[in-house]
């Protein structure tokens, strides 16, 4: 089971994509995304989940010393639940209107 991890280090370019060299001496392979690549050479904080032996899937990344950006995640489960509730209300109101009309 994965859990959220908070790491600090320097993002460097490696043969297989960006890596994070942490203050404790560890090395983590980061997602090769534009969001991560723009921090190559910078000291950053990252929050995410371990992926495999030394992989790290970044949820958030930001420069050290700056406040953590606010996370916005639109969860698909909540969106689907809201759609079912809205459809249920629509059907109920439609049924009442057809009985009265």
Topology diagram in text:
Layout: E1 4-14, E2 17-22, E3 27-30, H1 34-37, E4 43-51, E5 55-63, H2 76-100
Parallel strand pairs: 3-5
Antiparallel strand pairs: 1-2, 1-4, 2-3, 4-5
Give a written overview of the molecule.
Pfam families: DUF5818. Keywords: Membrane, Transmembrane, Transmembrane helix. InterPro entries: DUF5818. The chain is of the alpha+beta class. It is 29% helix and 39% strand. The protein has helices spanning 34-37, 76-100, and strands at residues 4-14, 17-22, 27-30, 43-51, 55-63. A 5-stranded mixed beta barrel has the order 1-2-3-5-4. The longest helix is centred in the last third of the chain and has 25 residues, at 76-100. The mean pLDDT is 88.
Question: Widest sheet: strand order?
Answer: 1-2-3-5-4
In DSSP terms, counting alpha (H) and pi (I) runs of 4 or more, how many helices? 2
Mean pLDDT: 88
Q: List the secondary-structure elements in sequence, H or E.
A: EEEHEEH
Got a strand count? 5
Instruction: Report the end-to-end length measured between terminal Cα atoms.
Output: 55 Å
Beta-strand fraction estimate: 35-45%
Evaluate the radius of gyration: 22 Å
Poorly predicted runs: none
Q: For the report, how would you describe the main beta sheet?
A: 5 strands, mixed, barrel
Sheet/helix structural class: alpha+beta
Query: Based on CA inertia axes, which overall geometry fits?
Result: elongated
Helix content: 25-40%
